[in-house]
UniProtKB/TrEMBL annotation, chains A, B:
Ranges for domain HTH cro/C1-type: 2-53
GO molecular function: DNA-binding transcription factor activity; transcription cis-regulatory region binding
Coiled-coil stretches noted in the UniProt entry, renumbered to this chain: none
Pfam families: LacI, Peripla_BP_1
Keywords attached to this entry: DNA-binding, Transcription, Transcription regulation
PROSITE patterns xref list: HTH_CROC1, HTH_LACI_2
Domain HTH lacI-type: start-end pairs: 5-59
Record-given protein name: LacI family transcriptional regulator
Organism: Aquimarina intermedia
Length: 345, 345
DNA sequence: CTGTTAGCGCTTTCAC
DNA sequence: GTGAAAGCGCTAACAG
């Protein structure tokens, strides 16, 4: 079993010094063409690859970015990860992926683990527990270690760093507005994420619109934890005669649709449905659901670009933190009625 | 902006040598308790963390494993990744995640990228293009670099390395058997992955069973590329009076169900459906689909354990490659009829 | 008990 | 043109 080739070995075999070999491989003009050729040939022969560890240690750049996600089975985060990966790889960067599993302690551990010079920067979305308990020291300490962070989606205002978010409030307003415009009068707002920053914002946005209309009423259905979401929603829909459901997260939307189907409700004739989701439902549901598309992959790409910009910045010129907002799209399909109200001119 | 603390700086500040500091932090019994206490206090104060790069360079262990996946938006791979991550983190390992996007060249690039001492080992599933074109040198060369690989799901028999697979043939046989036993006579086998190793195996398994029965006929519907899967399946179901669909992959299964719903076919009365999928459909469909569960997370965990075992092995005692087989489960739900045939005693 | 030294593999400055 | 030497941060064998 042959060991991995190093500059040293190439040098010995060629009767050259290590530095000459190193320079040759970089086409340093100090070195004669003949030598360069010799070196390259042998390097090629042995398939020499510079030891990434040594290069990083020397240069203090790892070309790696750390990504800490609350979950990966949630399609939204999977898409964000995909966006990050694409963008990172385009720039020759690798990504270290960690999944906090919505758990504060795991998140802390991962931040610790990665802040040992393992990565050049971090992209992360806070775990549910972190947001609920509001423990943020582990993030704030990254500043002291001089490692830049970009927070996305599940952010916290008090942390001074770059952020990329969705305008959740506006998005849910738009969705609610559509329901109202298409004639819905009695709307259920269903959420299983009321304890997350984004959950609150979506709530606020939806309510704001509903409250603008005297003839529109809404019901909030907040479901916590891993309660039996299905039966809660079923019970709710049975005892409340709503004509629309706005699902503020994937679970809420998905379950609502299935329960409606089970109850024999016709969509959209009897029940209009709009869901915050990211393509999963859209792809696998019938009738096709109207959705608030969060452009998760774009979000991932933007977060990555942000981080690259930050990394490229002269650290002394530490500009103020930037918050970028990704616009959502309301994608109307078969699960909602067309707009009925005549807008005033 | 304070720079990251190193042993050197601690040593200077404490008027000790670097090695004494290093040993103190390791509770080396050679060092006096008093010194250990002093060192630890200062280290704590500065939140000293050993530079992972330097440690790795020294020890030639990165505590990182590379994971190369064909896709991440496919729920199956997301689940596998989750399984890998959980298992790895349990052992204090980080994972470098790469997504080949079904593209041979990206896969090659990633293998190159990671085999520069960036990882201790690799877990991967071959990209579609790699399987089709059968170019495998990049994987085989890993052996020369002495970096262990565990291949899962999309494997290749000619590569000498550990493998973790699902018994796809048996799984599809089981599924087909159930359809037959529940009285289906005219069964569509729908696949969009006939060009993958797993696709072929599933095909073979299903056909084998169908062909055992004189009164059962089957139709193969192989859909290639990103053709308009929906219309092809719709057309097929319209012109062929089948009473069951066996979807050999997620797309095939999902689209079949939706089209059936669209066509007004009652499931399972008029059409039984079983799909190879990994919980996605199950979670979001109504009626609940019968599925072949591939236990993706288990698969990921097992692959990781395999890799750890390999890493722990004395390299000179390079045992033969091991192939582990993960059993599937046929999860029967509302989309299939109960078994009708009376089995002979 | 503590310190010196060498070395992991590489880059880079400075001599020759 | 080429090479020697220092150093990135750490560990470990060996001296003292």
């Amino acid at each position: 079993m042959r060991k991995k080739v190093t500059l040293k070995q190439l040098a010995k075999e060629l009767n050259l010094s290590i530095s000459t070999v190193s320079k040759s491989l970089k086409n340093d003009r100090e070195i004669s063409q003949k030598t360069i050729a010799r070196v390259k040939e042998l390097a090629e022969f042995y398939k020499y690859k510079p030891n990434a560890l040594a290069v990083s240690l020397k240069s203090s750049r790892t070309n790696t970015i750390g990504v800490i996600l609350p979950e990966i089975l949630n399609h939204f985060f999977a898409k964000v990860l995909n966006g990050i990966e694409q963008e990172a790889s385009k720039h020759g960067y690798k990504i270290l992926t960690c999944i906090s599993n919505e758990c504060y302690q795991k998140e802390v551990d991962y931040v610790e683990m990665l802040s040992n010079n393992s990565v050049d920067g971090l992209i992360m979305s806070l775990s549910q527990e972190t947001q609920i308990t509001n423990q943020l020291d582990h993030i704030k300490e990254l500043k002291r270690d001089n490692i830049p962070v970009v927070l996305f989606d599940r952010i916290n205002e008090t942390i001074d760093c770059d952020k990329v978010i969705i305008d959740d409030k506006k998005a849910s307003s738009k969705a609610m507005q559509h329901l109202v415009d298409s004639g819905c009068k009695n709307i259920a707002i269903v959420t299983t994420i009321s304890n997350l920053s984004v959950g609150e914002l979506r709530c606020t946005g939806a309510k704001k619109i509903a409250e603008m209309y005297d003839d529109v009423s809404y019901h909030m259905l907040m479901i916590n934890e891993v309660a039996d979401v299905e039966s809660i929603i079923e019970e709710f829909l049975t005892s409340n005669a709503v004509d629309a459901v706005l699902g503020l997260d994937e679970t809420a939307a998905a379950v609502s649709v299935n329960i409606a189907a089970k109850m024999g409700l016709k969509i959209p004739e009897q029940l209009s449905v709009i869901g915050f989701t990211d393509g999963l439902l859209a792809k696998y549901s019938y009738p096709k659901l109207s959705i608030v598309s969060q452009h998760a992959e774009t979000l991932g790409a933007i977060a990555t670009q942000r981080l690259f910009k930050r990394l490229a910045m002269n650290p002394s010129a530490k500009n103020k933190a930037v918050t970028e907002i990704v616009e959502t799209t309301l994608l109307l399909r078969a699960s909602t009625l067309p707009v009925r109200t005549t807008k005033q001119l």
